[in-house]
Design goal:
This protein is α+β, with helices and mostly antiparallel strands. The chain is 24% helix and 36% strand. The protein has helices at 5-12, 21-26, 52-63, 127-136; strands at residues 28-36, 47-50, 72-80, 86-96, 102-114, 117-124. The radius of gyration is 15 Å and the shape is globular. The model has no long low-confidence stretch (mean pLDDT 88).
Amino acid sequence: MSLTAASVQAMFAPLASAEPHMFFVKSISPEVVWTYGCPGATHILAGTYNGAGAMVAGTFGRLAGIFKGPLKMELLSSIIDASGASAAVTLKTTGEAKNGRKIDETSVWLIKEKDGVLIEIISFFDSAALVEVIEENKALLDTPPTAA
């Protein structure tokens, strides 16, 4: 399967829904290689995670204690390469921490697809804003797993 605007929209739709976990169930390979925070990032969640379970546990799972509910991530745009195997997507992430601090940021993810699922993701986002929210709510942050 090649990526198209419609397939990318369908892949990312669960992140903006009441069931964001379905993104990880339907759109992500269990063996995904996910670099969170861009290569070389040093914030508390940064790293390369091997496998969907490691990614969820190391990032979204840890953040669950900080936010009032799941972060809402809305697909704003996508640019698909000529081969249809890779794309750059822009996402708007919103949410509210338990201390009332709101997060509203735009990120860019580089994605690679194979057989209808994402096998590689590199996430670029405003880590300073996220680090501020984490620091303000550090007592609520789960114990960190080890990233590769």
